[in-house]
Write the structure tokens for this entry.
Amino acid sequence: MRIRVQLMSIVRRLADEDFDEYARITLEAYPAMFTNVTEERQKGWKERMRNTQNEDGPISYHGCFRDDKLVGAMRHHDFKMTLYETQTFVGGVGNIGVDLLHKKEHVSKEIMEYFHSHYRDRGATMTTLYPFRPDFYVKMGYGYGQKMNKYRFRPVDLPRGSRENVSWMREDDLPEMLEFYNRLAHVTHGMIEKEKTHFERVMKRNKVILHREDGRITGFMAFGFKKLREDHFLLQDIEVNRLIYETGEALRGLFSFLQTQLDQVERIVLYSNDHDIQFMLLDPRNGEPHIFYTSQETNQQGVGIMYRVINKERLFKELHNHSFNGETLRVKLNIKDTFLPENHGSIIIHFVEGKPRIREEGYDVEASMDVAWFSSLIMGVVDFRKLHTYGLVEVSDAEYIDPLDRLFRVHTKPVTIEEF
């Protein structure tokens, strides 16, 4: 007979003495990510983490302890994200790791429960993460965000244009760079505010160019060169890690810079949420001999950031000035949330000329869905009609599918350029 012993766990913020074990667990949890990490590098990494923890800033470290032993840990990020026109508090989680000896003991479940409660108690409306296993996080209530595209196009296929307003970024450009980015983030659905240290890291790891209009930064691009063959010193690609622009002129100017590199690189590798880059290219094919019926491969796609609503009532209160496309409709939303019971249940929203108000009674239609799909819907990643077609939403009256689809439809999908 097998006897199951219930282990008592404590999840808490890490103390200085916990970071040696935290580093060990992380290195073992992500062996392919952390290769050839010397003792000296580990020492510096642990010291930086301790300093970050003691600064009590937007990044903090937390772990799950059993019998005073650290068995799993994670890193928290306090984000200010633009949700349509509103800046909202969002919790991010990264670097989730479990001791190899404690896999399949629900450690991840416990630290994620702590993570959700921690941010809900602090007033966050949503949480977000990058999934190593999307199926694992869907079960925890996370809905899909925008897919990330990987394009590989030839420089010659970019349009020629002027590089007159393009220049290298210098260290004294950092304050202006930060102002530009956050100015754009505050008016772009899904974007997250940055701190100066982010751009210091970007400059340290990449080559960075800027685009200016009337003396003001309107775009920037961070990139590096990637060697294609060890035995050939002239074969290389440019990898674009960041491409942010405020105007079409800025995008065209930055692309003009890439176009002029045709004598030095084979292809431009661009990572982007933008699904329409092909319209900028003479030949959008990525060089892979893959043909789908009569279609040829232009890019690869991957599951990117995932979102989760952790407090639906607070969410609609924060969005009280947002217009859901001017629709007038009374909706009862039945949200299934088995992982965060406090967020489970029904809420009645009266949308009057698009503006949402929480009410106690009176509704025209009921819509029922899992919190994961509600999260994708409220972020504007997927349309209501598609969720209904896929069988992921139930409605009490099919006559209201069109009004519900118009209600939640967005013109601009979320843009999230974040690493955590």
About this structure: The first strand starts at residue 10 and ends at 13.
